Structures are given as structure tokens and as C-alpha cells.
From TrEMBL:
One of its GO terms (molecular function) is metal ion binding. This is Inositol monophosphatase 3. It is found in: Membrane. It comes from the Eukaryota. One of its GO terms (biological process) is phosphatidylinositol phosphate biosynthetic process. Mg(2+) binds at residues 120, 161, 163-164, 287. Keywords: Hydrolase, Magnesium, Membrane, Metal-binding, Transmembrane, Transmembrane helix.
Length: 344
């Protein structure tokens, strides 16, 4: 007697095929979910700057949550020193710096693995994690930047400052604290995001595309108010008073992000107003790149004291000091300051 075989009806065959297709779909979907950021970048090696802006805003705000949570825990700052600054002060680092850096860097690297990311803090192998982004660009951005802005991924350098004004953070002067992300294209700052964790305010701008922040209605051109760093205010005050006169008002403040925002129209009583930001010594590029991009987008300028553009590739250091302004004759300011610094 011949053995009986298994015969499938046309309906059974159809069900079997559908089940097989379902399995393949789930496998393929999982593959895409895991590798989509890489595949998107490899498709012509182009990146949409609107997407980078959306992720930069999310990264700054995500880092800000860590910064705020650590500070409000009050007993768990874990303050350490990374060494000495050139001015001889302790270069401090806290748990807030590290946790903010972990979230910010991992979010950007997970979704844009082909771009160069430079951050103030080191991201060790144990700190790496995948943080997915749903590829939704908020309407706040698309309403202003209405069309895609594609650039080659290898032209991009991202600068992250996970906690600007760490010294002030340890002193609980939290109004000075910001988290920042900057996107530079071929060394030029194009996207800037500055987030204030303790008020929830976020400023962003894209050069030649728009911003959610504005410059102020007026600036004091005759006797500008100068904002300088708390950490070495004496040296800067000497130069600025010699440049602009003894009647010049000088504000000492912490954090480069805070100082840039002081030049703009920022809501809240915790933000002072100034006309010019001056820094006469070495400063790191992650401290200033985001502010540079925002000022450029609004028609302002940030240069060295000699009026040279700051290039955001290569070395992390800007050695030429800093002059930032908006609504004033920047070249005239450069000429005045350059003469005083040279004769110092």
C-alpha cells in the first residue's frame, strides 16, 4: 500500500505563503529599525539639516533634564577636577556634565552615525547606548524651515557642550547654565541650539533659514554694555574700559551660552541684557559654536578679537579671543579692541 502524502489545498498554500511573508516582513522591519539611520545617510551620503536641527533641539533638552535632575538632588553633584584652566582655576566636572553628555552624544550618534561629533566630555564604551529618534520634525521647525536642506554628511562637524557654566552650576547659580549643540558645515556654524534647563527655554537658529529667537529692538551704539566672564573679569574689564571709556557698563556673567543670549530678545528676569560680548583669552569651540550660529542667522557676528572668522573643524581651541555683537558696527568694534589689546 502506497504511503499517504500530505496534500495542501489551495487555501492552505495561501495561508502558508501569507505566514511566510509575515515573518519576512517582521525580520525586514527589525532590520530597517536598527539600520535606518545608517541607510538614510548612505543614500548619497546626504543629511537633511532640518532633521539634524530637530535632533539637536531634542538632544539639548534631553541633556538639560539630566543637568536639572542632578542639581536638584543637591547631595549628588560628584564634583571633580579635570585639571587647571589656563587662568589657574579648577576645570570642574560634575555628574550632571557626564549624564547630560551621555544622553546628548548618544542621541546624535545613534541617528547620524556618519557625522563627526565633538563633545566637551569623553564618551566611554560603557556609556554608549542606542537612543532612537522617530524622525518627526516638529511643526515649530517645519513652519520656519519649510524645505529640506541637504548637505554631505562628511562636511558636518557637531559640537556638544553638555553643561555650560559648570563652575556656576556647582555654586547653584543655575540661571547661567545652558546645554548647547552646534552643527558646522565645512567649518562654518550653521545650526545653533542653546537650552536653559532651569527655565525650559530653548533658542535655535539655522543660517539662511530662520530661527525661533529674535534680536532686540535696540542696542546702545554710543556706550555699549559689555558682558564678560566671571572667571577672569578683571583682565577683560581693563581692556574694555580702555576701549569704550570709564562710563561703560560691564556685566560679569557665567557661561558663554548665557552671554550670547544676553545680546538677544530672551524672555525672563533671569537673563541680563548686553550689547557686546568680549572674551580676551583661549576658549573652547563647543562653548561658542552654537552662539556663533545663532548670531550669524540673525545678522550678528562672532569673531576673534582681530576680526577673523572662527573655523569649527580641527582643533577644539580658539586662541584668538572673542568678540560678539549684533545691531552694532562689528568692524568698528574690532578696530577699537584690536588697538587696545595690542598696546596692552
Amino acid at each position: 500500500m502506497a504511503p499517504m502524502g500530505i496534500r495542501l489545498s489551495p487555501l492552505g498554500i495561501g495561508v502558508f505563503c501569507l505566514l511566510g511573508l509575515g515573518v519576512l516582513y517582521h525580520v525586514y522591519s527589525g532590520f530597517l529599525t536598527m539600520h535606518l539611520p545608517f541607510l538614510r545617510e548612505r543614500a548619497g551620503d546626504m543629511v537633511d539639516l532640518r532633521e539634524l536641527l530637530a535632533v539637536a533641539v531634542q538632544a539639548a533638552e534631553l541633556g538639560g533634564k539630566e543637568v536639572k535632575a542632578v542639581r536638584e538632588s543637591s547631595t549628588n553633584l560628584q564634583v571633580n577636577s579635570k585639571g587647571k584652566t589656563r587662568e589657574g582655576a579648577d576645570d570642574k566636572m560634575t555628574r550632571g556634565d557626564l549624564l547630560s553628555n551621555k544622553k546628548m552624544a548618544n542621541l546624535i550618534k545613534s541617528n547620524f552615525p556618519g557625522v563627526q561629533v565633538n563633545s566637551e566630555e569623553h564618551l566611554g564604551d560603557d556609556d554608549k547606548e542606542v537612543i532612537n529618534w522617530d524622525h518627526t520634525i516638529p511643526s515649530e521647525i517645519t513652519d520656519i524651515v519649510t524645505s529640506p536642506k541637504l548637505v554631505p554628511s562628511d562636511s558636518i562637524t557637531i559640537w556638544i557642550d553638555p553643561l555650560d557654566a559648570t563652575q556656576e552650576y556647582t555654586e547653584n547659580l543655575v540661571n547661567y547654565v545652558t546645554t548647547m549643540v552646534c552643527v558646522a558645515v565645512n567649518g562654518k556654524p550653521i545650526i545653533g541650539v542653546i537650552h536653559k534647563p532651569f527655565t525650559g527655554y530653548t533658542a535655535w537658529a539655522m543660517v539662511d533659514s530662520g530661527s525661533n529667537i529674535k534680536k532686540r529692538d535696540s542696542y546702545n551704539k554710543k556706550t555699549p554694555t559689555i558682558i564678560v566672564s566671571r572667571s577672569h573679569a578683571g583682565e577683560v574689564k581693563e581692556v574694555t574700559l580702555r576701549t569704550f571709556g570709564n562710563e561703560t557698563k560691564i556685566i560679569s556673567a557665567g557661561g558663554s551660552g548665557y552671554k550670547v543670549l544676553s545680546l538677544l530678545d530672551v524672555p525672563g528676569k533671569d537673563q541680563e541684557a548686553a550689547d557686546v560680548y568680549v572674551h580676551v583669552t583661549y576658549i573652547k569651540k563647543w562653548d561658542i559654536c552654537a552662539g556663533n550660529a545663532i548670531l550669524r542667522a540673525l545678522g550678528g557676528q562672532m569673531t576673534t578679537l582681530q576680526g577673523e572668522d572662527i573655523i569649527y573643524t580641527g582643533s577644539e581651541a580658539n586662541e584668538g579671543g572673542l568678540l560678539a555683537s549684533i545691531g552694532l558696527d562689528h568692524n568698528s568694534l574690532v578696530e577699537k579692541l584690536a588697538l587696545k589689546v595690542a598696546s596692552k
